[in-house]
Amino acid sequence: MEKLGVELEVEGSGNEEDYEAWAMELADVGAAGSLQGVHDQVLPTQNSSSRVIVHVDLDCFYAQVEMISNPELKDKPLGVQQKYLVVTCNYEARKLGVKKLMNVRVAKEKCPQLVLVNGEDLTRYREMSYKVTELLEEFSPVVERLGFDENFVDLTEMVEKRLQQLQSDELSAVTVLGHVYNNQSINLHDILHIRLLVGSQIAAEMREAMYNRLGLTGCAGVASNKLLAKLASGVFKPNQQTVLLPESCQHLIHSLNHIKEIPGIGCKTTKCLEALGINSVHDLQTFSSKILEKELGISVAQRILKLSFGEDNSPVIPSGPPQSFSEEDSFKKCSSEVEAKKRIEELLASLLNRVCRDGRKPHTVRLIIRRYSSGKHHGRESRQCSIPSHVIQKLGTGNYDVMTPMVDILMKLFRNMVNVKMPFHLTLLSVCFCNLKALNTTKKGPMDYYLTPSLPTASHSGKHSFILEVTSFDLSVDTK
DNA sequence: TGGGGTTAT
DNA sequence: ATAACCC
């Protein structure tokens, strides 16, 4: 039975051909896709065929966090403001015509009663975001974050365990929770249906737990891959969930009005596709794959072509702790080195706090700028360097002044990018810490001896023999 | 147009 | 280091 998982190459995307291939493979190994076969099947949880994925999407996340912080805002139209934008708003505000990413002036015109709160400091949103991810990780450890307000969870194994707990006669009593996409009828003799229904039950439990424990509402979509789960979660919108059964896959993908609504097809790709006369999902599905590969490269072409059929074999990758920490600030104009330094110091101060709380040590720092009138959208430039080990040592201790050496490093990066002897005009500064390494990651290797804090060596025990110095030594000799 | 994030090249 | 993608 093990080989079932290895041999199957089909995706279980809901595509009819895939389904038939799947059923035939099952027949080959002696398991029928029927009710009787359920308990005999070793479900292919180790590969991409026939998965159960949930996408969880919080309703207007920042606005929800603000309403929890200040319940008086709850029944008022509320917008969260960053600079000149209303980045998100609650449903009261949406009823009155406020949209996401709307200009503040426009939003106030549309809705003079709109209450605005500043959301430029993401600290509380970030914290709540990780509470959500951690809650979902209690269900299954395989949770992938997408931004602050969305998570994918691979429920395949969990569904399988629940099915194994059921008696045969209980299988015919499995019910759905939430909506079924396209009002499709459920076939309780279809194992794929049964599995997705159990997924819908788990999704409901997740949303219930999010509400009971964190006070947050959100949507969920359950389907056989990430693409479809994400599309399904958006079908019924605030605080509802929907499950997609395989037979309605094409209905869902064709319900999109334009290819740009397919997650994975972004701004640039859309422009390129439009230039080729491709606008609808059907246009893309039927377009020459050879020409597409020439225009977009084989990788992108093959991926988005599959996406257009609702096929997505990308796994749910557990996000774990963040790969980077960054803080940015945008402004109308920064044209002096002194002002840049002040702004960089502010960004750095917040970042050092965050890094300290995380516990890991960044080994790389990056400075990002945006110049005025530089093509606007992705006119960002960056310079990075590794952080000297003696500075890394001081990170997170709070006892030493790490600001001064870090600011020095960042200003060197700044002058490397910006000729300060010439006039300049910046509209954004950002500092990023990345290449994070854990302390005490006792890896096998020749340096293992030096990695243990309990054995300070003569070379440094005279001056500093306490734990921070020793663990820092670990980092300075880390494999690079 | 914000203030974040990720991966691929 | 940049460019694409995501929110």
Structure description:
- There is one protein chain.
- With 480 residues, this protein is an alpha+beta fold.
- Helix content is 42%, strand content 17%.
- The chain has 21 helices and 14 strands.
- The protein has helices at 2-7, 16-28, 61-69, 91-95, 104-110, 123-139, 156-165, 168-171, 191-214, 226-233, 249-254, 267-275, 281-285, 289-296, 298-308, 337-358, 389-394, 403-417, 448-451, 458-461, 467-476, and strands spanning 53-58, 78-82, 85-89, 102-103, 115-118, 143-146, 150-154, 179-180, 218-223, 241-243, 324-334, 361-371, 380-386, 426-437.
- The strands form 3 sheets. Strands 6-7-1-9-10-8 form a 6-stranded mixed sheet. The protein has a 4-stranded mixed sheet with strand order 4-3-2-5. A 4-stranded antiparallel sheet has the order 11-14-12-13, covered by helices on one side.
- Strand 6 (143-146) and strand 7 form a beta hairpin.
- Helix 16 (337-358) packs across helix 18 (403-417).
- The protein binds a DNA duplex (9 and 7 nucleotides) through residues 61, 81-85, 87, 101-103, 119-122, 125-126, 145-150, 263-269, 299-300, 319, 322-324, 326-330, 366, 376-378, 380-384, 430.
